[in-house]
Write a structure and sequence with these properties.
Length: 678
């Protein structure tokens, strides 16, 4: 095969690989797996400027170079299901080009094209490239190191004096080895691979000039200097260090042997059973490719004295334990550093077989090779785009309903008012496990979508005075988690969106402009309120709406709780209506007091179940506030009062009667508490 033909075929393979990696990327995978979510938590930590060698998460250390790269890229292109995967996708395609270059240097154009084809149309490399995991960089890292070694040292073992070495390959080798420690614990094995090959070249009396040996030391020193922070962090935090995570901890030797055997069988027979990484049961290679791999391995063993074959053998010997002794073996993500070597062995096996064929048979070899390639294209396309996405276990593992909602919100949230109902508004930004709403926010490509997040269990936002809006339920269960008053009086007006790309009962379309206007109009006669007795002008009844400072207006309340008798220990659920007239304080809170007299608070609750910074002018939000009556509460008549304040200052917003300030709270009406003991 000529160089020109091999270049053309390599370009076609790159295009094929791009199709297998980019096609339907927003829906395949359909969301984020738990391990990907963990990596994205590190990504967001790095984006906030917290740069560490090891990130501790779930009691385990994680190297952070991959996550930092994702943070840098998504800062430019945006996040979401596409943005977060770009680093992995680019790494997969660059790996393909480097494998072709490495195969051509070691074994010639045909072997190079074959190796590139194995990675281009294989399902395991395609799934790996679509993942959000440090393992996605390992094929690129290993290929880069092998190519640097092949260009730095005389891999052909020629006896005439080789050309004088250049510094760039050696510097590249050192930089790659140093950076590898910040990617994944497999870098230990890759470093040993490099040192082992250099030792082999010396002991095998290969033609190494003094200058080449000097440059080799230079590369190792560069690697050591770059790895110094990693070494220091390893000494400081040995429990987080990568060396302890390189090989799974097995309870006994029998378990380790079983894992190794399963790993070997997984290549041609068992397959990875994890639906996140593979169509369960699909092997890494087809039987014919497995045969070519075996021939290539035998050829390399037979010619082990040749450096180009020894390079592959040393790499396989040192990286194979990392793949075989992984948890849940066979684990195809653990095979990631071996993928370039497997592809090169297959390329070597093919050219070995072709050279051994009779001349009369060789003309048919091109058709046979094309047939094998076509078989793998069809096999991978069928499983990757057909069987794997339809697998229920895969859909659950990737949180498919949330992924579908993310795609839907990216398409619609800019054109229709969107409220996301979730019960996690008051959780810390980084809880031990992310909630469905937080996972959904990671999947959305546009982080600045104009959505309002609301705890619909105790509040609703009716945007723009009840204009058309969609209520999104990422936690599932339809309206089951919505407070009955809100469900019966408002969301019952809506209709569920039915579309094949939206999970059932997850998006409710609602338009209540007229109903809301009628409700607010009725408050003017059914829910009069009083100003605070200490306010200028004293007590006086007024009909809602009542204007507060901070661009907030009180519209009214559900009067069913007023003039009722309660017992100590009861819970009162007060529903109030508020309108936003402009920018409100981002830390706004509402207070509800039960007063024995205007100055004595018998019970209270300060809360808000919306994110105030997301509210817009003309939004109406409905707040349900629950007040626990103390068990020791005396019998008697009590008053209900409400108001608002910014949490940062606790200075209450002023109540206005026209332009006149009238205190900082409103009185709604009386209740009675009656103890059972008389």
């Amino acid at each position: 095969m000529s160089d020109r033909v091999s270049y053309a075929l390599a370009a076609l393979l790159l295009l094929s690989a791009a199709v297998f990696r980019f096609w339907d990327l927003t829906a395949l995978p359909p969301g984020l797996a738990d391990a990907e979510i963990d990596n994205l938590r590190i990504v967001e930590t790095a984006r906030q400027g917290r740069i560490e060698v090891f990130y501790a998460l779930n009691g385990e250390g994680h190297e952070g170079l991959y996550q930092m790269a994702v943070a840098a890229v998504t800062s430019v292109v945006g996040s979401g299901l596409i943005g977060y995967r770009l680093v992995s996708l680019w790494a997969g395609l660059i790996t393909l080009a480097l494998v072709y270059a490495l195969g051509k240097r070691l074994f010639g154009p045909l072997a190079a094209v074959t190796a590139a084809a194995v990675l281009a149309v294989g399902m395991a490399p395609a799934v790996l490239a679509r993942g959000i995991a440090p393992e996605t960089l390992l094929p690129l890292f290993v290929t880069g190191v092998l190519l640097a070694l092949a260009r730095s040292l005389p891999v052909y073992g020629t006896r005439p004096p080789p050309p004088e070495p250049r510094t760039i390959p050696f510097a590249s080798l050192g930089i790659l080895l140093g950076l590898g420690f910040y990617i994944h614990p497999a870098s230990y094995a890759v470093a040993l691979l490099s040192i082992g090959f250099i030792v082999y070249m010396v002991l095998a009396r290969q033609p190494l000039s003094q200058r080449t040996l000097s440059y080799t030391w230079f590369a190792l020193v560069v690697a050591l200097v770059m790895a110094t922070p990693y070494v220091i962090s390893t000494l400081q935090f040995p429990d987080l260090a990568g060396i302890g995570r390189l090989i799974a901890d097995f309870p006994d030797l029998a378990a380790a042997v079983t894992a190794a055997v399963n790993g070997l069988l997984g290549v041609l027979f068992l397959g990875d059973m994890n639906p996140v990484q593979n169509l369960p049961g699909r092997p890494l290679l087809d039987l014919v490719s497995g045969l070519l791999f075996t021939v290539g391995l035998i050829t390399a063993l037979y010619r082990w004295r040749q450096p180009r074959h020894a390079l592959l053998l040393i790499g396989a010997a040192l990286l194979l334990p990392v793949a075989l002794l992984a948890s849940n073996s066979p684990n195809f993500f653990a095979f990631a550093p071996l993928l370039p070597l497997i592809a090169l062995f297959i390329g070597l096996g093919l050219i070995t077989l072709l050279r051994g064929l009779p001349r009369t048979v060789r003309p048919y070899s091109a058709a046979a090779i094309s047939g094998l390639l076509l078989f793998n294209v069809v096999w991978t396309a069928r499983d990757l785009f057909g069987a794997w996405p339809q697998l229920p276990a895969m859909q659950r593992a990737y949180h498919r309903p949330l992924g579908q909602l993310a795609v839907y919100l990216d398409e619609t949230a800019h054109t229709i008012n969107t409220i996301i109902c979730s019960s996690d508004l008051r959780l810390p930004p980084a809880p031990p496990e992310l909630t469905d709403r937080q996972i959904l926010s990671l999947m959305i490509h546009q982080p600045d979508l104009p959505v309002r997040n609301v705890d619909c269990g105790t509040a609703l936002v009716l945007p723009e005075g009840g204009a058309t809006a969609q209520f999104v339920m990422p936690e599932g269960g339809g309206l089951a988690g919505v407070y009955p008053y809100l469900r019966a009086n408002w969301l019952a007006w809506g209709e569920w969106l039915t579309a094949p790309y939206v999970p059932p009962e997850s998006v409710l379309r609602l338009q209540v402009t007229d109903a809301l206007a009628d409700q607010i109009g009725s408050f003017t006669t059914t829910t009069p309120v009083a100003f605070a007795p200490e306010s200028p002008g004293g007590v006086g009844l007024v009909s809602p709406p009542v204007r507060f400072g901070g661009n907030l207006a009180f519209l009214g309340y559900d009067p069913s709780v007023i003039n009722q008798t309660y017992a100590p220990g009861d819970v009162i659920g007060l529903t109030t209506y508020w309108r936003v007239d402009g920018l409100v304080p981002a830390d706004l809170r509402l207070f509800t007091h039960i007063l024995a007299d205007p100055a004595v608070i018998a019970a209270q609750n300060d809360t808000i179940s919306v994110l105030p910074e997301q509210l817009r002018p003309r939004d109406v939000f409905i707040q349900v506030t629950f007040i626990d009556l103390p068990h020791a509460m005396p019998s008697g008549d009590y008053s209900l009062s409400v108001g608002a304040y910014p949490d940062s200052s606790s200075e209450r917003l002023v109540v206005f009667d026209g332009a006149l300030p009238r205190g900082d709270r409103l009185f709604l009406g009386p209740i009675t508490v009656q103890r059972g003991d008389g």
